[in-house]
Amino acid sequence: MMNSRLNRRHVLSALGAATLSAGLPLGALAADKKLVLGFSQIGAESEWRTANTESIKAAAAAAGIELKFSDAQQKQENQIKALRSFIAQKVDVIAFSPVVESGWETVLREAKAAKIPVILTDRAVNVKDDSLYVTFMGSDFLEEGRKAGRWLVEKTKGSTGDVNIVELQGTVGSAPAIDRKKGFEEIIKADPKFKVIRSQTGDFTRAKGKEVMEAFLKAEGKKINVLYAHNDDMAIGAIQAIEEAGLKPAKDITIISIDGVKGAFEAMIAGKLNVSVECSPLLGPQLMQAAQDLKAGKTLPKRIVTQESIFPMEVAAKEFPSRKY
Ligand code: GYE
């Protein structure tokens, strides 16, 4: 193991103090040096993402960590460039939230060769060799999808007619889009009355959510009973489309989304969104802790899961004042 004492002693004596940023337990060598963390963010596609960025910046400042922050504007190629630049700058730790799951092997191998530990935040990667990253911290997206499904099963209990669902998926190939779809399907497949009649990506943005919902309404009109949106922003965009089509959101069409951002609470309080499954973006403090733990030579668990809840509109007004994002 990278962090075992034996290995550490061995490497220290073999390589000497010149390997300051070797990605080995950093603390022994660099106790008085400010820890440098390179973070590659996906973009600013949603309220969730903005809150996540703020959390990371604030937590780095509070922890006295030098943060090199890079915004990829939702493009994997930009993230790969950012990671390479962090490697070239010999940062102590790299963290990133991978926009999609696949295609990371090469750059992660480069980081490993440079002995820079990599922490995944928020979204997972799909790699065969899981030694290419130290830990993955973030939500259980499958479970979020299941929570959304269970809420719908409960809500429609006793009704026998078809429940026609349209789905707004997140970014194609992203971990939350893949898993939120899967988790939801896993639950609703138990009853054939649930029918997903349309499913398309809205890329996690309000604008796309609205645009795709308009197309759904055009094609299916009043047949639509339920909208399942993989995030609140797309649901909020879709609410506009529903109102513009002369229908009542949360009444004519039941709306389920994920994240639990302020905008969703406002929509619930206004009676336009039925439920939001929580997905916390406040990963900053956990990330800084993990970076410091690495510095101190500690071994991190391979998976750190965020604790989360679900908020139906009935509790929105009561919960709203204590929401932090
Ligand atoms: O749900 C969505 C954002 O990866 C969990 O990305 C995150 C998702 C979040 O754009 O709003």
From TrEMBL:
Species of provenance: Ideonella azotifigens
Q: What is the lineage of its organism?
A: Bacteria, Pseudomonadati, Pseudomonadota, Betaproteobacteria, Burkholderiales
Instruction: Give the highest taxon in the source lineage.
Output: Bacteria
Keyword terms of this UniProt record: Signal
Signal sequence, start to end: 1-30
Keyword check for NAD = no
Q: What is this protein called?
A: ABC transporter substrate-binding protein
Domain called Periplasmic binding protein: residue spans: 38-298
| Family of the protein in this entry | Belongs to the bacterial solute-binding protein 2 family.
Query: Where is the protein found, in the record's own terms?
Result: Cell envelope
